[in-house]
Structure formats: C-alpha cells, structure tokens
Amino acid sequence: MSQRTVIVEDYDPSWPRDFGILRQRIWPTLSDVALRIEHVGSTSVPGLAAKPIVDMTIVVAIRDDVPKAIERLAMLGYVHRGNLGIDDREAFDHPAGLRRHNLYVCPEGTIGVVNQVAVRDYLRANPEAAARYGALKKQLADRFPDDIDRYVLGKTDFVLDVLRRAGLTAEQIEKIERDNRPA
Fold first, then answer.
1. In a domain, 8, yes or no
2. 141 near 50, Cβ under 8 Å?
C-alpha cells in the first residue's frame, strides 16, 4: 500500500494555463526530438474533478528517440524513474520549485499515449461521462484518502469501459489491464 494522501478537487480553469506554462518551459529543449506535448489526465478535461496534478506526455516519433528525450529532460532537472511497469511510457519526477506535475515520454502510437489521449478525448466529448467519473473519483478519494493504490484500482473498471467506448481494440484493452494489474 502506498501512503499518499488522495485529494480530488473540483475542476480548476487554471489547469490548462498551468500545462501551457510547463509546456513552454520544456518544448524548446525537445522541439527537435518530440512531435508534441499532450495535456492528458483529468486536469485536461474541462469540468472534470481531479487530483490537482497536471499530467503531460511528450510524444516522440520512434522508440530510438526516447533516450534523447530522457537526456534533454535531465538537462532541465527532470529525474528519470523508468517505465514504472508500463511498456513504452517513461516517467519523470519534476524539478523542485515547479508546479506539481507528472511527466511521461511515449513513442507515437504506443499504448502509453493512445490510452491517455483516448480517455481524454472521450471525456471531453461526453460531459455526462466526465461528471460520473468525477463523482466516482471523489467517492474513492473519500473512501481511500491514504491509499493511492486502492483509489486507482477503484477507477479501473470505469476507465476500461471508456477505452472500449473510445474504440480501443480488445488487444489494446488486454495490454492496459496487464500493465495495471497490482503486483
């Protein structure tokens, strides 16, 4: 069990601006290596309650570009944490003094970025689903305030349903389920 307090807040319209500020800081260092930087996760969906942590994914063209991106991010003070058990998704700790955020690097077309963008785009297009998801997240945060693992596990069925509705294949869903199975 991980001991981190789980806090879910109502949507804050400053989250997209915060993403933009962080993106502006990173992009010049990666613009020749990366294709784009995506704002993903719940803070990227207008109106959705979320943990107040901006999620960002740097998308590179091919796997061979990942080491270059890792090296460039280190120059900005990011600490590479590895894939944390999810293939083709490298995670980073942000430098001290920056707004709290999660940063990932994924090759284009891999499940690490496909699932994040699919959930974001589906919830943006379906405000009723986003409202249900926000309510679920608040309930889980109230129920498991000191257990991030159980909070995340409680969201799994909802997220898998969204991915099915967003059009991911059975093989993609199976891969996501494998990657997110508790150790």
1. no
2. no
